[in-house]
Amino acid sequence: xxxxxxxxxxxxxxxxxxxxxxxxxxxxxxxxxxxxxxxxxxxxxxxxxxxxxxxxxxxxxxxxxxxxxxxxxxxxxxxxxxxxxxxxxxxxxxxxxxxxxxxxxxxxxxxxxxxxxxxxxxxxxxxxxxxxxxxxxxxxxxxxxxxxxxxxxxxxxxxxxxxxxxxxxxxxxxxxxxxxxxxxxxxxxxxxxxxxxxxxxxxxxxxxxxxxxxxxxxxxxxxxxxxxxxxxxxxxxxxxxxxxxxxxxxxxxxxxx
Length: 257
Description:
Helix content: 25-40%
Largest sheet: 8 strands, mixed
Structural class: alpha/beta
Mean pLDDT: 91
Oligomer: single chain
Strand content: 15-25%
Strand order of the largest sheet: 3-2-1-4-5-8-6-7
Low-confidence stretches: 221-230
Radius of gyration: 18 Å
Shape: globular
Number of helices: 8
């Protein structure tokens, strides 16, 4: 649980230790990361060869793993937060404690590199992109999602979202948001033709989830005498495409050569 006795700067990695118990709660502080992981995994095709490797940069507690089941990849996750990696390993992710701007893996080792909800947390996102592209074999696939560097994104993802139970307060530093055009250009410099599309939570599903989440918050335990937090029952919101990349966007691209 978060340490109520301290206030951390925005985007401080120690927040993930404080929130370690939230990763696998479908209605917890990281609920939206579950929805995004499902949408990201949908961009990944089944493995085309035995022993195919997927490198999951900023893997957290391995939320991508259930959505890759049966696709035939060895799933390697790279993250700085050891408490998250311990949980990722419990979900059959090969955990690597490392910095995404200096990944301790070989050039061209990966058939797929995933970088989900990562780049907006990295002080030097260009170095992280260079590493992601370096890890890809020729023909390998890069999939990512991140927040755009726009006034609308800062308004929705920080000012408004942090008032809702879907985004932990202070988890983002809007100064690190990633301009979509600059990201496409940076990937091209490293031989990856990145194509973007805007995404968002489906409105009906999100509104229904928020209502159920607020009702659950009014009854902190599932039944009288229990010490288990009440959970949100109902359908999970889906991430859907949208015409604009101005806030949240996905990228998918193949390395040339």
